[in-house]
Amino acid sequence: MRRRLAMWTASHLMRPLPGPGEVHVWCLFPEDITGEDTALCKIYKELLSPSEKTDIAQCSSNPKMQTQKLLARTLVRTTLARYASGIVAPSSLRFTKNEFGKPNVIWPVKRLDDWRPPSLCFNLTHTQSLLMCAVTQKAEVGIDVEERERKFTRDLMALARRQLSPEEADWLSQFTDPNEQRCQFMQLWTLKEAYVKALGKGISKAPLKEFTFTFDASSPTVLRNLKQAVTIPISLSRAVDNSDDAWQFLLLQPSASHYASICTQILPSSTFEQGSLQLEGWSNHNNLQVQLWRTVPLVRDEELEGAVALALSDPLSS
């Protein structure tokens, strides 16, 4: 294990910074940890701060939650350290939160003439079966993932009327098949959560009912599982985002069992280096690029296979 860690530090920690309109997404499937070296989770704990360790210890009555918190903190730390040219150890990172709980990274002081801390923005989301960390350079980013088979104990349309905008709830009511209606609701939900998380204001300051994702009326099922990304118009209320910021959205299936959405701020490209890889089904005329990896922190990384773009917003419409 120690030898593997040394090899990982040398090769995997160094990752080129995201370019303009580029989002790097690191995906951790807890099932991939099963069968790994039994010492791996102990090593993950060594990366955490005392407060993080205390938080995890307080969940001793819920082992699944303990594991999820451990993997979440490990994923964030190891992901961000990749972009520091191998200079910064994951354990040396510190974090602060804004008044609404959105975290920011504090890089350790390194007195090196040829290295400056990168201006990274990041966001974490997780279910029991998938954790995802999105990273951009300078552009705010939000990401949300949900399980496709998530069950609801309450009437779905009643929930939609309470949580979604009236226009979205009306659109959702067109679907008479309960399973299809649930899938459409989950997709809408991830889009809205990703936007709120990118804003960093929390739902209390950006109520989900106050902005609307609108779709082509002639194609009410535009959010079905398409093999090609589809441009969708998005209307955002200025009561929620009263700045001049422009946003772009991607709805995708990172796996057959999940829906996820990414929201990222559109910035000028003059100070970036452009990335190259694109998500399957991506339209070349759009400037947003997404790279996805499947990772077991400190062990292995590989490109995520099978991810499909479902819908893409027009950056000029938001």
UniProtKB/TrEMBL annotation:
Q: Which InterPro entries match?
A: 4-PPantetheinyl_Trfase_dom, 4-PPantetheinyl_Trfase_dom_sf, P-Pant_transferase_sf
EC numbers on record: 2.7.8.7
- UniProt KW keywords: Transferase
In this protein, which residues make up the domain named 4'-phosphopantetheinyl transferase?
141-235
Q: Does the keyword Coiled coil apply?
A: no
Q: Which PANTHER family match?
A: 4'-PHOSPHOPANTETHEINYL TRANSFERASE SUPERFAMILY-RELATED, PHOSPHOPANTETHEINE TRANSFERASE
Name of the protein this chain belongs to: holo-[acyl-carrier-protein] synthase
Species classification: Eukaryota, Viridiplantae, Streptophyta, Embryophyta, Bryophyta
